[in-house]
């Protein structure tokens, strides 16, 4: 096939694809519209575009474009086209080629706005926080998604993986498996990514919230409150969900470090539970999920482990729940997410007051579960529990916990 014929066929094909978010609409001479990721330049022979981000740029001949539609909807590109007819090449660097992305005016004209401005108008705020002297992370990248102009009941902070990388939960169009939980409770969501200093993978230096990563989260929320002109956002209470070695460690340690800010927390499939528990932190509902065959903590020398902290702080009679997932390793599945969101839902319903303050929980209103066989009964007396038993917040949650730890769904 000759190169020119191949290009013509390719141009016809691209004017049949479906539109994508945050892309630039172009109408072809055949009347069909596509959306391209970016426009690099207008040349005498055509428009240099990128169909998808990271694709090689291609040139679309002017004859393959509807120039009237270009004038109506993309006046900036149309002006470059007129200049290009005089033999000039006009650099545009729109969309994926620069910081300018398309927005739509009221009359249908596409105007290009700064990417950051557009995202923040839609409720997505991104912040990088640098460490102070003595703090144990290299850089903290944080993203918060809110409903613009509306104060959330709480912020769900998600930290996962070795770097505590939960950014996608906030930066993507949807928080995925957590989105129904957010929608049902009018919550904002913050994703975290802590860049570690140490190359030694047996050390995860950011996991202690008291060593800087906790401050980074609170500072980021304050910065965003200022940028969003919502000062009340700075003091909104937090739910913490952490998974994997690093993410779970951050969730546990943040809860011990700043218990007065936390409605409830989940630390799933992790270790490095190093921060000392206090009388105050023992009053924060905390779910620790463990995989029966999860041995990643051995590789990372990740002590203390969940079972250890239950025994160590039993005398504080904490509102902590231990859930061992049978026949499971470090992987995650729907049942784990369901148990986590069920626990956080109970914490929201029973701790968060209308004025945003947090209520204390009466421990004896809960249940006690047998970690060995999944049975449970009412907790009649406020006593310290042995490591073979665990506190459960409610009858409904006890039923879900029993199914989870026995593998019966």
3D architecture notes:
The protein is built from 12 helices and 19 strands. The longest helix is centred in the last third of the chain and has 18 residues, at 334-351. The protein has 409 residues and is α/β, with parallel strands linked by helices. It has helices at 3-14, 67-73, 75-85, 115-121, 167-171, 179-185, 213-227, 244-257, 296-299, 306-312, 334-351, 395-406; strands spanning 24-27, 33-36, 38-42, 46-50, 58-61, 90-95, 100-104, 110-114, 124-129, 137-145, 155-160, 188-196, 238-243, 262-268, 286-291, 320-325, 367-370, 376-378, 389-392.
Label the CATH architecture of the largest domain: 3-Layer(aba) Sandwich
Radius of gyration from CA coordinates = 26 Å
Class inferred from helices and paired strands: alpha/beta
How many domain modules?
2
- The CATH homologous superfamily of the largest domain is called Alpha/Beta hydrolase fold, catalytic domain
What strand line-up does the widest sheet have?
Answer: 9-10-12-11-13-14-15-16
How many β-strand stretches? 19
| Major sheet | 8 strands, mixed
Map the helices and strands:
Layout: H1 3-14, E1 24-27, E2 33-36, E3 38-42, E4 46-50, E5 58-61, H2 67-73, H3 75-85, E6 90-95, E7 100-104, E8 110-114, H4 115-121, E9 124-129, E10 137-145, E11 155-160, H5 167-171, H6 179-185, E12 188-196, H7 213-227, E13 238-243, H8 244-257, E14 262-268, E15 286-291, H9 296-299, H10 306-312, E16 320-325, H11 334-351, E17 367-370, E18 376-378, E19 389-392, H12 395-406
Parallel strand pairs: 11-12, 11-13, 13-14, 14-15, 15-16
Antiparallel strand pairs: 1-2, 3-4, 3-6, 4-5, 7-8, 9-10, 10-12, 17-18, 17-19
